[in-house]
Amino acid sequence: VQLAESGGGSVEAGGSLTLSCSFSGYAPNAYCIGWFRQIAGKEREGVAAVDKEGRTFYEGYLKGRFTVSRDNAQNTAYLQIPSLKPEDTAMYYCAARKFAWGGCSMHFAEYTYWGQGTQVTVSS
After folding, report:
1. How would you class 38 by CB atoms within 10 Å of its CB: exposed for 0-12, middle for 13-18, buried for 19 or more?
2. pLDDT over threshold 90, residue 60
Protein backbone atom coordinates (compact mmCIF):
# COMPACT_ATOMS: atom_id res chain seq x y z
CA VAL A 1 0.00 0.00 0.00
CA GLN A 2 1.24 3.47 -0.86
CA LEU A 3 0.05 6.54 0.99
CA ALA A 4 0.53 10.26 0.44
CA GLU A 5 -0.56 13.06 2.73
CA SER A 6 -1.40 16.59 1.67
CA GLY A 7 -3.08 19.67 3.07
CA GLY A 8 -0.62 20.74 5.73
CA GLY A 9 0.66 24.27 6.08
CA SER A 10 1.19 27.25 8.33
CA VAL A 11 -1.89 28.76 9.93
CA GLU A 12 -2.72 31.07 12.80
CA ALA A 13 -4.27 29.77 15.98
CA GLY A 14 -8.00 29.38 15.58
CA GLY A 15 -7.70 28.48 11.93
CA SER A 16 -8.57 25.14 10.43
CA LEU A 17 -7.09 22.58 8.08
CA THR A 18 -8.27 19.45 6.35
CA LEU A 19 -5.55 16.91 5.71
CA SER A 20 -5.93 14.33 2.96
CA CYS A 21 -4.43 10.87 2.66
CA SER A 22 -4.47 9.30 -0.78
CA PHE A 23 -3.85 5.57 -0.71
CA SER A 24 -3.43 2.84 -3.31
CA GLY A 25 -2.47 -0.80 -3.55
CA TYR A 26 -3.85 -4.03 -2.12
CA ALA A 27 -7.13 -2.96 -0.53
CA PRO A 28 -7.27 -5.49 2.36
CA ASN A 29 -4.02 -4.00 3.66
CA ALA A 30 -5.75 -0.63 3.95
CA TYR A 31 -8.67 -1.80 6.06
CA CYS A 32 -7.75 0.76 8.70
CA ILE A 33 -6.38 4.20 7.86
CA GLY A 34 -4.90 5.89 10.87
CA TRP A 35 -3.75 9.44 11.46
CA PHE A 36 -0.77 10.09 13.68
CA ARG A 37 1.29 13.11 14.60
CA GLN A 38 4.77 13.60 15.88
CA ILE A 39 5.73 16.69 17.79
CA ALA A 40 9.44 17.46 17.73
CA GLY A 41 11.23 15.49 20.43
CA LYS A 42 8.23 13.36 21.29
CA GLU A 43 6.97 9.93 20.36
CA ARG A 44 4.54 9.55 17.49
CA GLU A 45 0.98 9.55 18.82
CA GLY A 46 -2.30 8.36 17.41
CA VAL A 47 -4.93 10.93 16.56
CA ALA A 48 -7.78 9.13 14.81
CA ALA A 49 -8.54 6.20 12.54
CA VAL A 50 -11.27 5.04 10.20
CA ASP A 51 -12.01 1.57 8.88
CA LYS A 52 -13.33 0.49 5.50
CA GLU A 53 -16.93 0.53 6.78
CA GLY A 54 -16.55 4.10 7.99
CA ARG A 55 -16.34 3.36 11.70
CA THR A 56 -14.20 5.98 13.41
CA PHE A 57 -11.82 5.76 16.34
CA TYR A 58 -10.19 8.56 18.28
CA GLU A 59 -7.43 8.98 20.78
CA GLY A 60 -9.25 9.67 24.02
CA TYR A 61 -8.08 13.16 24.89
CA LEU A 62 -8.36 14.35 21.29
CA LYS A 63 -11.90 13.12 20.67
CA GLY A 64 -14.15 16.02 19.78
CA ARG A 65 -11.34 18.13 18.33
CA PHE A 66 -10.67 16.14 15.17
CA THR A 67 -12.94 14.52 12.62
CA VAL A 68 -11.75 11.58 10.53
CA SER A 69 -13.53 10.31 7.44
CA ARG A 70 -12.91 8.19 4.38
CA ASP A 71 -14.08 8.05 0.76
CA ASN A 72 -13.46 4.55 -0.54
CA ALA A 73 -14.47 5.48 -4.09
CA GLN A 74 -11.68 8.08 -4.11
CA ASN A 75 -9.25 6.00 -2.02
CA THR A 76 -8.81 9.01 0.22
CA ALA A 77 -9.06 9.57 3.95
CA TYR A 78 -9.43 12.95 5.61
CA LEU A 79 -8.61 14.55 8.93
CA GLN A 80 -10.43 17.78 9.73
CA ILE A 81 -8.80 19.96 12.35
CA PRO A 82 -10.83 23.00 13.36
CA SER A 83 -9.73 25.55 15.94
CA LEU A 84 -6.03 24.81 15.64
CA LYS A 85 -3.79 25.49 18.61
CA PRO A 86 -0.02 26.08 18.70
CA GLU A 87 0.36 22.72 20.47
CA ASP A 88 -1.08 21.03 17.36
CA THR A 89 2.15 21.91 15.53
CA ALA A 90 3.55 18.59 14.35
CA MET A 91 4.25 16.37 11.40
CA TYR A 92 1.05 14.52 10.57
CA TYR A 93 1.17 11.05 9.04
CA CYS A 94 -1.39 8.64 7.71
CA ALA A 95 -0.84 4.91 7.88
CA ALA A 96 -2.59 1.71 6.83
CA ARG A 97 -3.05 -1.73 8.29
CA LYS A 98 -5.17 -4.79 7.60
CA PHE A 99 -8.21 -5.87 9.55
CA ALA A 100 -7.81 -6.82 13.19
CA TRP A 101 -10.39 -7.77 15.78
CA GLY A 102 -11.05 -4.95 18.20
CA GLY A 103 -11.14 -2.13 15.72
CA CYS A 104 -8.47 0.24 14.44
CA SER A 105 -5.64 0.71 16.89
CA MET A 106 -4.30 4.11 17.93
CA HIS A 107 -0.78 2.74 18.39
CA PHE A 108 1.73 3.44 15.65
CA ALA A 109 3.38 0.03 15.99
CA GLU A 110 0.19 -1.65 14.78
CA TYR A 111 0.42 -0.02 11.33
CA THR A 112 2.42 -1.44 8.47
CA TYR A 113 2.37 1.18 5.71
CA TRP A 114 3.18 4.86 6.12
CA GLY A 115 3.09 8.07 4.16
CA GLN A 116 5.86 10.66 4.22
CA GLY A 117 3.95 13.12 6.36
CA THR A 118 2.69 16.66 6.02
CA GLN A 119 3.79 19.48 8.32
CA VAL A 120 1.26 21.53 10.25
CA THR A 121 2.55 24.68 11.94
CA VAL A 122 0.26 26.80 14.08
CA SER A 123 1.35 30.27 15.18
CA SER A 124 -0.07 32.12 18.15
Report:
1. middle
2. no
